[in-house]
Automatic annotation (TrEMBL):
PANTHER family: LYSINE EXPORTER LYSO (PTHR35804). This is Lysine exporter LysO family protein. It comes from Vreelandella janggokensis. The chain crosses the membrane at residues 6-21, 33-51, 63-84, 105-129, 135-155, 176-199, 211-235, 242-264, 284-306. It comes from the Bacteria. Keywords: Membrane, Transmembrane, Transmembrane helix.
């Protein structure tokens, strides 16, 4: 039952053992991660075309993603609102952050680009058509699996060399509390959403364990449950980030923990400039710690829950 978990988790662990001191090599690793994500999402789009009755399947994908997103968001917002009421954190006005997005559209640019990559994969699969398409779909699945192994090793290396020592993480109690609150409320939502999505309880937990890391959750889920559910995971977590860009400026001064936490794993990268721009520098270490913990938890949790299917 756990052999599949070990096969996929092993590259992540091996990558985590690699210590990289050169900033140039760290930049190359970051670039390789981005490239691998684009490749796998392109291949996922191609695989979607291989599904029977594609139009109905895509409609099902959208409906399931909306359902999972609605339930997860409801639980996340309620839990983070409760946490915001219990902890006090004062935000401050800060100057515009260097390289921070100047508009919501600019902030969402990276997210929308990934959607475009999936769409490009779908178009490629449609243009291939039979009989070339059948061989293309099987090749896409096999290639995506091998690229996934490389991606996990690179992500493990990224996490090891992120500059976040364990002591710093544990001492930031608010960042830890936000991460735990977001994780637990997401997993509870996944259990409740599972029967509505015709999934087992552990598959529902896996779907909810992306914590906003849409590129990775789509890849891991798609590898185990097929491209349809991989698409559901992708759009569920992607929509979280898009809503976070809108939500953060509106609530960060009244409900700081909610604003920082809702973005999930993205609070340490994509949504961090927005958090700092509107909440001030006091929010930055909390957001980074929260996002880092969720990023560290997401891959092994997804793989563990999926391994329980066997």
């Amino acid at each position: 039952m756990l052999s599949g978990l070990l096969i996929v988790l092993l590259p992540l662990l091996l990558g985590y053992l690699v210590r990289v001191h050169s900033s140039r090599w760290q930049h190359r690793i970051n670039h390789a991660v981005n490239s691998a994500v684009y490749i796998i999402l392109l291949l996922m789009g191609i695989s979607l075309v291989g599904l029977e009755n594609l139009s109905n399947q895509l409609a099902k994908l959208g409906g399931n993603a909306l359902l999972l997103f609605s339930i997860t968001t409801l639980f996340n917002l309620a839990a983070l609102w409760w946490l915001s009421r219990r902890v006090a954190l004062k935000t401050g006005q800060s100057p515009v952050v260097k390289d921070a997005p100047t508009s919501k559209l600019a902030a969402m640019q990276g997210s929308l680009l990934l959607v475009a990559v999936v769409a490009a994969g779908v178009i490629t699969g449609l243009l291939a058509g039979p009989p070339l398409g059948e061989g293309l779909f099987s090749t896409a699945d096999l290639l995506a699996e091998w690229v996934l192994y490389g991606l996990l090793a690179l992500i493990g290396c990224q996490l090891r060399n992120s500059g976040m020592p364990l002591k710093q993480i544990l001492l930031n109690r608010l960042g830890l509390a936000i991460a735990v609150t977001l994780a637990l409320s997401s997993l509870l939502a996944g259990v409740l959403a599972a029967p509505l999505l015709a999934l087992s309880w552990n598959e529902g937990l896996a779907m909810a364990a992306g914590f906003g890391w849409y590129s990775l959750s789509a890849i891991l889920i798609g590898d185990q449950l097929g491209p349809l559910m991989g698409g559901v995971a992708f759009f569920n977590d992607l929509t979280r980030e898009l809503l976070a860009f809108i939500l953060i400026p509106l609530v960060i001064h009244r409900h700081t923990a909610l604003a920082i936490g809702y973005g999930g794993a993205t609070s340490m990268d994509f949504t961090l400039p927005v958090i700092q721009q509107h909440g001030g520098v006091a929010c930055v270490p909390i957001a980074v710690v929260s996002g880092f913990i969720l990023s560290l938890l997401s891959p092994p949790l997804i793989l563990f829950f999926l391994s329980l299917s066997g």
